[in-house]
Description:
The protein is of the alpha/beta class. Helices cover 28% and strands 20% of the residues. It is built from eleven helices and twelve strands. Strands 1, 2, 3, 4, 7, 8, 9, 10, 11 and 12 form a ten-stranded mixed sheet that branches. Strands 5-6 form a two-stranded antiparallel ribbon. The two termini are 21 Å apart.
Amino acid sequence: MLNTRRDFIKAGFVVGTTFSLGSLSGLFAEEPTKNTKTEISKSGEKPILVALRDGSRTAMLDKGLATLGGIGAFVKPGQTVLIKPNIGWAVPPENGANTDPELVAHLTKLCLAAGAKSVSVFDNTCDQWQKAYEISGIEKAAKDAGAHVVNGKDETLYREVSIPNGVKLKSAKVHSLVLDSDVFFNVPVLKNHSGALVTSAMKNLMGVIWDRGFYHKTDLHQTIADFLTFKKPTLNIVDAYHPMVRNGPRGKSPEDCIEMKAMLISTDPVLVDAASVKMLGYEVEKVAHVKLGADLKIGSSDLEHADVRRLKLA
């Protein structure tokens, strides 16, 4: 793994002036944070982005949720919960291609502790699904934490829906867990992507529709944005602890990652992706699906006018 920005530069994979969290125009706190707001935004107020750094994944998740009112602000007793991580690839956690299994497990435990009736986890994987579930470590971690791990490659679990506000994606087969769960947590890993430049919250939702190929054959960026006119997650939690910065989306080895020890959380998938894009050194205008998401009023890409809650844990 590339542990520092200097390592990244030496490797010859410079992207803008990034990979120093302190240089990201105030996105992250410079000093450890003691007191923070503890409420979610109300209608008409600025969208909230929680930008955390320098903690374990579990500690950052706990702290980030606390600033938004705690897990109870999102999960009520008796509700069914869906956690949608990235489990696309049959590679180990250190390669950075999938969401970290410890993060999925911890979120599962928090939901069950809050009284959730059930927690389900799935992805429509790119690699063979049993291998991806196993080698990623997510299947075991989620099951051990009490989640139901569901096959994302069973077409009978998908239902055709209309997407009337989509520009090019007018209908799709969507997994029933997305349609039927009370609470929907979108938990992507941040990484480089050869086609979309960056994959984070918005693109992770390709894994809830049956025909992934339609996106690529039609208009990748537009269809990514189109789906969110139909369904937005309850909360987006971006695992940016050691983002893959080259050879994405699958990567080749842990050397494709750089350690950032960061996490981004927001109810706004466009806002959290705008911050994700910035972390990987791009301008929002260069990552078309994020710009399109803002154009379609799915969310805001304007970080300057967002309520950014910057938390440094150490």
